[in-house]
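Q: Got a minute? One more chain.
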Amino acid sequence: MKLIAIETAAEACSAALYLSGEVSIRYKIMPRGHSELILDMVDDLLREAGLSPTSLDAVAFGRGPGSFTGVRIATGVIQGIAFAADLPVVGVSTLAALAQRAYREKGERNLLAAFDARMGELYWAGYRVAEKELVVPAIPEQVGSAQQVEMPDGGEWYGVGSGWGAYSEQLEQRLEAHLLGFKAEIHCSARDIASLAAEDYLAGLAVAPELALPVYLRNQVAKKM
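A: Always. Here it is, folded:
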């Protein structure tokens, strides 16, 4: 399988080339300029592998939630590539990708992923590591205050993402003894978008480019996040 994945939903901008389980990546943390950087990353990966977009099986993107501008950039770029090369698209939750990276780097299997959504809220979801060492949802994606988001039922959990930096005190109080720890300074990576997208592609979950839509969770997307 040959697949390009991109991620621009937050501070980190990245692209990954998935070739039958092997992943090459370009990754840079920068607050702005993702729209200019991401296409160069994709071109570099394809050129290095001696591939063109038309030789791929699919493309994938972090479909949100996250920064409205960042999610919109990823959606527009991936639709452009897919339309031009006649490729299907796989959209991957940025919260799931965040949890997948935390498992890959920390080894924790019960994960609470949270982005700071600003305006006193966070984007939130829970995941467990299942078959093929990939995360599956345990708590659905949602947006709300730290006092409102759904808590897991029992077990021990590890928190990951910027939401834990912004609302750690409230979340720690709610989870009490069920919290193993947390790491706020971690970002989504296209490497994990690619791994999750490859499995979704094999499961028949790819869609036509025009159906590859962003997920914002919040209605007030016009406000800067």
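A: The chain is about 30% helix and 30% strand.
Q: Perfect, thanks.
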